[in-house]
Here is the input.
Amino acid sequence: QDVASSETTCYGRRVFATTAYWTLNAREMKLLQAICIAACSLASNALKVLNVGLPRTGTQTMHAAFEMLGLRSLHSGYAPWSRIPACNYEFNNGSFSDVLALLQDYDVASDEPFELFYEEILNELPSAKFVMVVSEPETWYESYVNFAEAQDLVHAGTALLQHDAARYHRRGFEDALNNCSLARYLGCEFDRPQTPAIKQRCLDGYKKHVASVQEKVPAEKLLLFNFSQGWTPLCNFLDAPVPSEPFPHVDRFHQTEDSLIAWLASKRG
Here is the structure.
């Protein structure tokens, strides 16, 4: 038996192909190399980074930073349609294959409910990396309370659900995504007046998520990130050059809502 071996590169990685039982001629060897490169190219379209930080931990800022690094970033708040297959999987026995199909078009995914999928991504995409912004639980909670107040979630319901276009779709949309928003999956109830018991349950859910990520994601695949550190640790972790621009800071309270309203409005008629 002869063994034919080929080595080539794909996206900076060496690719080996070895076949036994027959001898390949030069033309066949080139075809084998092309197959290897094609397979690697398909793999390169898989998600590279999952932001496992919860909403209100700076997911909008991280989205901007990822884009500045040249990554195709999905922030579900800016692309609300992306939440439908993800929420369907997480809370309605949907298929994770639908989520993977969606993520093929992106290098990074952030915001709810994608931050909950770290175990699935570990299993399906073992080369993926994970980033989690470090935030004190009380700071995170107060940020979410302020967000809810700014959106007037407590007194009037979200402007999204009061909007004429949204009301047209309200029941189906609300039923599908209710468990998937406002960190309800943590036990939080930001659309209600806060009580000590509600607050404590919410903080416990936050801490449980952070602890679970650190327990289940291998340390070498997880970056615990603080914005005060700037670009360097993030770029080192992602093997990316450090941009000349300052690290961004983005927090658009109403952009997510307006984006969803426009999307729903386009579905009328």
The first strand starts at residue 3 and ends at 10. Residues 1-22, 37-43, 154-173 have pLDDT under 50 and may be disordered.
